[in-house]
Amino acid sequence: MSQWLVLALGMAAACAVVLTIVLLNHRRIGEDDDPSETPDVIEYMTMMFGVIYAIVLGLAIAGVWEARGAAQDDVRHEAQALHEVSERVQVYPAAVRQRTRADIDSYVTYVIHKEWPVMLDEAELRPQGGALLEKVRRDVTDFTPRTNLESQAYQPVVDQVAVADDARNARGQNAGPTMPGVVWFGLIVGALVSIGLIFTLQIRRSPRELLLAGLYSALIAFLLFLIWDLDAPFGHSPSDSTSAFLALFPGVS
User: Fold this and answer.
1) Number of other residues whose CB lies within 10 A of the CB of residue 78
2) Which end of the chain is less congested by CB atoms within 10 angstroms, N or C?
3) In this structure, are 195 and 214 located in the same domain?
């Protein structure tokens, strides 16, 4: 199911539930009920809770956004480092150059098509991916430079493999969800309480009040969906975060 469809259904469901409760609540209220009798303390508490919950939502969005950005940086560093290795071995002998590039392509192909789906589902990396990267490391470290140009390229190539390995380890550490379960519990309970408090203000059936109640509930549903979507640092499908690899290694697609 498309994420846009899920978002639309969630927002529509939140609006429908809130408006239904408002209409049912209006039927049981007597004609002599005066909405101006709402105690000032209730209005104050509703306002304060809304402000506090808005701050919590903002912090949650900032946290998952920062984690998503850090995860994408790890992917870019890993892909760029491997691309640098593939380009810098141009000065190596043909046999070494071809073997190194073939092993890099094998690693990238495995990561995109095999390891990435597992990483998204299980939040862990596959040992086979580490073995393929280790093969690339052996290709460059076991080579003995014979010319001055090869000697100048040797250490930078080795360093780029180390950068790729470090970025891979960081990718594995950041593969899981960012938000703890207790935070999700607080966000959901806070949303229910925040929406529930608007009924203490004695909302009527006027179009303006119904519109505001629906928009308020839809906004909270959207923000919770946004946090859920960003809570996966590498997205919910391989196409969400493998663009760096595909851009630098178009042949693996």
Assistant:
1) 24
2) N
3) no
